[in-house]
Amino acid sequence: MWFGSWRRKLPSGDADNENHETSGLNDLNEPLLSHHISDGKHAEGQRSKEISDEERRRADLQWEMLFSNLIMQWTHSIANIVHGSGTSIVHLFRVHFNIQNGQNQKQPVAPVLSPLQKERLKKLQKRLQVPFDGSRLEHQDALWQLWRLAYPDRELPSLKSEHWKDMGWQGTDPSTDFRGGGFITLENLIFFAKTYPESFQSLLHKKDGDRADWEYPFAVAGINISFMLVQMLNLRSGKPSCLAGIRFLQLLGEEETAFDNLFCVAFQMMDAQWLMKRASYLDFNDVLKSTRKQLKRELELDGVSRVKDLPAFNMLRSREGN
């Protein structure tokens, strides 16, 4: 997976798709964008990459402050109900300090999975093994389902059409973009569109914030986010052993759709980082790394037992309004 088709925001607000030369990534451990784009071959009118180090630090600081404020709010709530020595409060501050300074001292302990967790993990890992196959009718139907959810008032395109670029696929044939992402990435996008339609439409059409002249392509960004989550949570191993993966298993025990919900949170978080950093398409890898770091921090917080407990979940706008 890599980025080859980019959407430029024109003064009129319409989008024009431009193709840029990229070289493929054979190593599926890095399906992202950065050094594979040839210098000097970007379209005329591309906005220069002028984000200074100071601006980046300022953006990172804003995330730190938001994160700290959330912790303080939680701490205040807990302080109202905890009596005695206050050991729990001291522990919460200590965990927050360690996480903020990249020194989380918690040692991952391989959990003993319940029968329900085992069943759901096995089902999720089975989903990860399914490649996207454009010749399978159910996969074609899923692709068209995504189109209907994205553009309910537009006519269905053929499986190979220029119209797919409007959704942020690289070219005329979406099946060529999945590669190591697999069918689960399409399922993630469909889940997002069905469960959080307002947020989905907002991200698809880049409605929020001051957007860059050269934006990330929506669909291919989703594939990269799915891939990032699988790596971060160590889901291709027999049983996740990293702290984020262990915490995810706890979420999975509470809700079978934990991975799909986490995808939606990660997508919304990535877009917020994108806007805060005033990013353009060359910055996508940078933004995705920041998103991964922030998501890990939130997963490692005490008291997170469901995806809805993550601070970033509040950025999503669900169909039910909760």
From TrEMBL:
Domain annotation ELMO: ranges: 138-299
Organism per entry: Hibiscus sabdariffa
UniProt name for this protein: ELMO domain-containing protein
Start-end of Basic and acidic residues biased regions: 36-54
InterPro entries to which the protein is assigned, alphabetical: ELMO_dom, ELMO_domain-containing
Ranges for region Disordered: 1-54
Basic residues bias locations: 1-10
